[in-house]
Every structure is written in C-alpha cells, then in structure tokens.
Amino acid sequence: MQLRVLEAIDAVDAAAWDRLAAPATPFLGHGFLAALEHSGAVGPQFGWLPRHLVLENGGELLGAMPLYLKDNSYGEFVFDWAWAEAFEKAGGRYYPKAVCSVPYTPATGPRLLVAPEADPTLVRQNLIRGAIELARELGLSSVHWLFPDVTDTDALEAEGLLLRLGVQFHWTNAGYANFDDFLATLSAKKRKNIRQTRRRVFAAGFRFRVVHGDEASEQDLQLATDFYTETFDRKWGTATLNLAFFREVARNLGRGLVLIFAEHSGRTVAGAILFRNERALYGRHWGTQVEADGLHFETCYHQGIEYAIREGLALFEPGAQGEHKISRGFLPTPTWSAHWLADRAFRNAVADFLQREQRAVADYWRTLNEHLPYRADALPPPPAHVRPVES
Prior knowledge:
Blueprint: E1 2-6, H1 14-21, H2 30-38, E2 48-50, E3 52-57, E4 60-65, E5 68-70, H3 81-89, E6 97-100, E7 113-114, H4 120-138, E8 142-146, H5 150-158, E9 162-172, H6 179-183, H7 188-203, E10 207-212, H8 218-234, H9 243-253, E11 257-264, E12 267-276, E13 280-288, H10 295-311, E14 315-317, E15 331-341, H11 344-368
Helix pairs in contact: 2-9, 8-9
C-alpha cells in the first residue's frame, strides 16, 4: 500500500473518493470539498491548505482522509487557542498544524474513509500513522481529528491519541408521523411553549418555502449567500463562503442542499442553509433582514424538524452550541476530537488538562440530561453513530 499527499481534491477521481465517503455526511463527498476549494473558501486566504491523504494499492483507492495544514484555529469548532498560547509562551511554535476535518463544519461523521473491500483496521492505522509521519516530516506541532464518529474515535484512541469531549444538541426521529406526533412526546409545558411560538410566527404573516439545490434559482442562491454574509457582518465575523461556493455545491449535491426561506409581504426576509443525505439533516447557517419573535426558532429548528419527519430522516444536527435547543427537543449529544502532539512535555500537560476537562464536560452532559423536555416514557434513542460518554 502506498500513501499519497494531495494538494487538491481534484487530484483524486471523484467517483473513487465518493465510493469511500458514501453514505457518510454530505460534507465528505468530493462535490462539497471541491466546491470549497474551487470557490476559494479554503486556501491561503483563510489558512486552510489541502493536504488530503489517500491510501492506494496498485492504483486502487483503499482509504482516504481530508486533511489541511492550518496557520490559525478559525472554522474548527474545537477550540485550542489556549493550547497555542501556552505552547508559544513556553517557546514553541504551534502553527502550522494539521487538521483532519471538514472546514467550517462541526458535524460528526467518518474521518478515516475505507473502501468496502479493504481491511478497515489496517487502512485506518495507515491513515493515522501516515498523517503523524507527515507532521513529523513537516515539523508540525500537532495533528487534530475533529468530530470523528464512534468507529474512528475508537481507532484513534487505539493509536494512542488524546481524546477530547464536547457537547452538541441533536434531534432524533422516533418514527414520528408528523410534527404534532413529535410534540405529543414532550411535557405539556414544552409542548405549549412551542405551539405558542409557532402561532406567533404564522400570525405575524410569515410563510416558509423549501428549495433544494437542484431546484434553486440564481436568485435563491444569491439570497442564501446574502443571508449567510449578513450574519457574519452583524457578528463581526469573517464570511468564507461565497456565491461561487453555493452555485457549485447546489450543482454538485442537488437535493443535498436544503434552503428554507421565510417570506413576508411578498419578500424573502430570512433563510436557513442546511444539508442532507438519506439519513440526516444538518443545519449550518442562517440570516435575516428582520427581527421577529420566534422567527429564528421556526426557520432553523421547527421547519427543520418538520422537514426531517416528512423526509423520513433519522437525525437532525442543527450545528454547534446552544442549550436553548433542549427545550425544542434536541438531546445533549457527545462529540469527540482526537489529538497528536509532537512535543512530549506539551502532550503530557494537555493530557492532564483533558482528563480534568472531560470529567467536567461529562458532568455537564449528565446535568443537561436531567432537564430534557420529553415525557419519561417517550424519550427518543440517542444517535448511534456517536461514541457515548460512558465509554
């Protein structure tokens, strides 16, 4: 087996890559990663330099891993700014580092992609060890795998990497027939609150329109871009996605791109940008031109839940953070990352920190689970693709 480093996703055949990535999250597909690169959303401007790893045998693709060199920690959602500051105060150089993730996308999924006919243990070992060897050759401080699924988390731990625990809020579908069927599983108070919020939004005159990528007009894609950019401008952030990205990702993913637009008095005034595959819906961004009570919750959460029920999707991940999501039926869900650090003393210090942090985060997760909105006899199952805290 031979390991190659690719400086562009286009250096590998799209069908060969997608054979390994399917049926993972839509973000791991060649079409999504290519759209990021072609549009300039990743590259020198934002400090994401592609160095994807592919494992081959006689020209046949057996394994792959999306990998980037980073000179910052933006767009990762696993925050290591304090690690960088501590290492550099001690005389080290934290950047550049290597990151295995999907840029700007805190969605749990496979990170070590394996061909169906290949030995999964052997392929994962070669990808992990290959990334570490590349880091040594380049003199990098570290390699980080962000939001791996349960199988890859276990493989990374078996290779001696440090694990870090986080918490997001995910909705799981217990076979609901419709939104009212879902509401019936909640406590009376939570059910009433959601109904009141929805009534206020619709009584105020808002209506909603769902558009998939293969249905989106140029105006729809421009609206999505404008709403995305508006949020970053309002919050003093940096918008990395652009109209060229949304055009290409709509073309490449088709129904995998889901736009939910809020309309009022003949105008489109707000919108949520989501992605999907056959299993799950992923909320990523939203923006609005108006302030209205409950509009954010309806556009980003309630409409997403309705869509997932209607489409028979098992999971809805609405993005990072947000304890307010619990009252709307989203469960506290563990997320993981894995970390290799070149400097032994620094690694020992981080390992000690992570032990203490993991205990605190686990306690936080357990506390959140004491305040779920569901009736005791109607609690939906947790997502199966995530490594549980008890492990």
